[in-house]
Every structure is written in C-alpha cells, then in structure tokens.
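Appendix B, Record 12. Input sequence as logged:
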Amino acid sequence: MFRPVISRLATTVQRRQLPLVSGSRAASTLVLGEHNGKEVSAATLSAVTAAAQLGDVSLLLCGKNAADAVAHAGTVSGVGKVLYADTEAEGYIPETITPIILASQEQFKFSHLMAPATSVGKNVLPRVSAKLDVGMVSEITEVVSEDTFVRLVYAGNAVCKVKSNDDVKVITVRPTNFEPAAVNGNSAETVSVEGSSQDNVKFVGQEVSKSDRPSLSSAKRVVSGGRGLGSAESFDMLNTLADKLGAAVGASRAAVDAGYVPNEYQVGQTGKIVAPELYIAIGISGAIQHLAGMKDSKVIASINKDPEAPIFQVSDYGLVADLFKAVPEMNEKL
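Logged structural output:
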C-alpha cells in the first residue's frame, strides 16, 4: 500500500533534477554583465549563480575594446553563451543598453532577463520591463522556482515570496545572497548582437574614486564609521585600521549626510548592500536602514559607548567603550 507514495516521491525527485520550464519552452536566462574591460564583476558572477538555478545562461557584455572581458566571461561556470555588443556603452546609459537587451530578447526568446542589483542593473532593467510591458521583481535573495522568488521588504524585516505570471521575468539579484560563479576554464561560445541606441542621449563623463583598498561591495573585511566619529578628520583613524586589516571603509547614512565621507561609502538600505566575512561598526547606533545593508555579514563587531545601542543586538562581538580611545589602541596593537 506504500508503493504509490514511493513512486510519487521518486517522480518528484526526478523532476527536480530537470531544468525548470516556462510555459512550453525551456527556461533560459540572459544576464546583463558588468566589466572593467578585463574581466566581469563579482556582482555579475553572483547573478550568474542565480540564473543557473533556472536553466541555460547567456551572458551579455557591451562596450568597445572588451575582448579580454568577453574571453573571461566565456570561462565562467554555468555560462553557455556570451553575447557581445561591440558598441559604445560607457556609463551603461539605459537608452544605450536597453535596445541591445531587447534585440537579444527578440532573437533568442529568453524566459528571464536578469542583472545584479547594482546601480547599473537598477538603472537599466526597469526601462527594459517597461518596454516589454511586464512587471519587475527587484533584488531577489532566493530562487524558489522559475516563476517564484524571495525578496526582502521593510528594510529587511520581512521576507516576501513573489510569483510572476509574465511570460518574460525581469529580475535584479542581490549579489550578497548568491556565491559568485566559479571561473574554471569553461568554454562558452560567443555571439555578436546589435541594438540601436538613442541619439538624444550622450555620455559626458563620470568621476570615479580611486583607492588601493578593496571595493566596498566585494571586500572580505569592512570597517564602517557613523556619526559618532564627529568629523571627517576622525575617519583618518578608521582609514588606518582598514589599511592594517586589508579592509574597505564604509559609513552610515548619518555620517555621509554630515559630510564626513563621500556618498559611495554609504552602507545601508539606500547605499551599498555588503556581506563581508568581518564587519566592524564604529560609532554606529544601528538604525534599521543601516542594518538592512550589513546584517548578513558573517561576523559583526561593534564599538559604541552606549550599551543600549541597537547595533549590539545584531553583533557577534560588542565593545562598550569610547571609540576615540579604543580605535587608536587597536591601531597600535595591530
């Protein structure tokens, strides 16, 4: 009498091993890749990991003189095809990138269009979804099935499961929730694609901060400061600590709004989402907007003179002390 149950269980296991499908066609995903001319970004590799859970993966790269990046993309595990648009894509202007994505979609009929939830992905994919007249699922943290995804709402305090009934799913992926795909010598084919850009939009320029420290978004260690530091000059001791630890420097929104550090340092709901192996919060109270950007860190250590500071509730290690005494002592001993 148990045989039918066993049979159904076996069938269920077997089905889970098959590629997920959308309607009558096998699921296939186009990932918008970001690169520096030499290699694709770590955030893109995380998006590939998410896309690989859905089926076949194609990786789209745009830009002039990107042969090295295209070659690197072809070696990424899980990528079956690299689409390359040899066109001016500096600044990743949506009016330039969107037509290329739409042309690729028209040619290959992807079931999913995906990008990492970076400034580029958040800028381009909403325009793509509007052009396709479909809904968009933003910053997913988990792939449940080919039409169902998990994302966080209310600054990370609630988990929302979203199902999309659109024929084409347009999705951004929170990179910190997916391990970067391995670069293991895969050999994906390269296909050229084209798309017409808008003549009324022109890239003028951008100011990029240069630093010898790791990128804040992908650093394994992050040292962040808050309004408790009191001034821009006080961040110098955090810079020293970060250099000794080989860490990136971050900041709370309050510190950014006060003018202590530039906007690109901001960690939180309206800044960068990070999940390093070690996150050190110094002079940060722990507002919910900040916690939303760093609470997935593997180890969190905090320094604050207020023993009731909310940051201690999410910390693995906490030091109730005057940061102006504690941080110099740390710098001296390291």
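The two ends are 68 Å apart (CA to CA).
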